[in-house]
Amino acid sequence: MALERTLSIIKPDAVAKNVIGEIYSRFEKAGLKVIAARMTQLSRKEAEGFYAVHRERPFFNALVEFMISGPVMIQVLEGDGAIAKNRELMGATNPKEAAAGTIRADFADSIDANAVHGSDAAETAAVEIAYFFASTDVHAR
Ligand code: RTP
Ligand code: MG
């Protein structure tokens, strides 16, 4: 499998639940390394830009409101097949449909407050990583 990087966000609901460490532990146990990280409060502009592909969707405003409702923890994960591996750890978008033992099954409350974001493809991962991190703040090791 190819060495990949993916953009992960621990969303405001999971930060509020104080489970950053538990989620990081799942990344590490799955062989994913945190190679960049930053806690921030997203501005409306940043959240709208990040989710611009969803701009026309009915849930867009609710999604943006939720993403700016509190601080988020943003990280770049690196590892073999990191994009799919992270999506597997996350579970389905709707926590009611997420497989047992996934992050969303264990920590998410609803399709809106669903604990984590993960890039869905190599192209989006590259764009999303560059959206939040300068290359000098990403530390391959
Ligand atoms: P994410 O981008 O946050 O990692 O989530 P995802 O790929 O699993 O889901 P995506 O389709 O990209 O949707 C982005 C976020 O929008 C919210 N959503 N709400 N009410 C709805 O039908 C609906 N569909 C999506 C979710 O919070 C999802 O994480
Ligand atoms: Mg998505």
TrEMBL record:
Cofactor dependence: Mg(2+)
Any Pfam family: NDK
Active site: 117
UniProtKB keywords: ATP-binding, Cytoplasm, Kinase, Magnesium, Metal-binding, Nucleotide metabolism, Nucleotide-binding, Phosphoprotein, Transferase
Location of the protein in the cell: Cytoplasm
The protein's Enzyme Commission number: 2.7.4.6
One GO process term, biological-process aspect: CTP biosynthetic process
Matching SMART domains: NDK
Family classification: Belongs to the NDK family.
Subunit structure: Homotetramer.
Protein name, UniProt field: Nucleoside diphosphate kinase
